[in-house]
Amino acid sequence: MNSKRISAESNPSQYKTPSAFTDEELYAALRQDLIAELDAINLYEAHRAACKDPALKDLLEHIIDEEKAHVKLLQDYLASKGQWSAKDHEVESFTTRLVAKYSGV
To answer: What pTM did the predictor assign?
Structure first.
C-alpha cells in the first residue's frame, strides 16, 4: 500500500458518484470519513465542556459515544482490508492519538 496524504484534494467523493469508486478510492473516502468522525467528537467535546445544562451534557455524551463507535467501526473495517495502519499515513501521530483516546484502543 502506498502512503498518501489525506486531504480534501484526495477525497474521491468530490469527483465521482459512489458507484464509480475503485476500491482504493473507497478506502480513501472511508479514511476521510474516519477523520470527520474524529472532528465531530472534538466538536461535541467542546460543546459539552462549555455547557451548563445537565440534560444537554448527557445528550452530548450520548452523541460522543456514538461517534466513538463509528470511529471504531471504520478503523476495524479498514484494518480488515489492510487499509488502516497508522504508520502508513501522514496523519498518523494526530489521528492515532485521537483514535486511541476515543475508541478505547
So the answer is: 0.66
